[in-house]
Amino acid sequence: MSWRSLTNLKTAPVASRPQSSALEARGRRSRWSATAREGGAVAMATRAQPWPLCSAGSAGAVALATSGAASAEGLGRPGPLRDETLGVASVPSQWRGVQGIRGETKSCQTASIATAEACVQTQKHADAEVQTEAPVPAGVLPGSQHDSPRLAAFLRRVEAMVIRELSKNWHSHAFDGFEVNWTEQQQTVTCLHTLGYPPAQGQGLHVTSVSWNTTGSVVACAYGRLDDGDWSTLRSFVCAWNLDRRGLNPRQPSVVVEVPSAVMSLAFHPTQPSHIAGGLYSGEVLVWDMSRPEDPVLWRTGLTDDTHTDPVYQVVWLPERHHSHRFQVLSVAADGKVLLWQAVGAAQLQLTQGFALAVQQLPRNTQLRKPHRGETEVGATAVAFSSFDPSLFVLGTEGGFPLKCSLAAEEAALTRTPASVPLRAPAQFTFSPHGGPVYSVSCSPFHRNLFLSAGTDGHVHLYSLLQAQPLTSLQLSHKYLFAVRWSPVRPLVFAAASGQGDVQLFDLQKSSQKPTVLIKQTQDESPVYCLEFNRQQTQLLAAGDAKGTVKVWQLSTEFTEQGPRETEDLDQLAAEVAI
Question: What is the pTM of this model?
Answer without folding.
Answer: 0.67
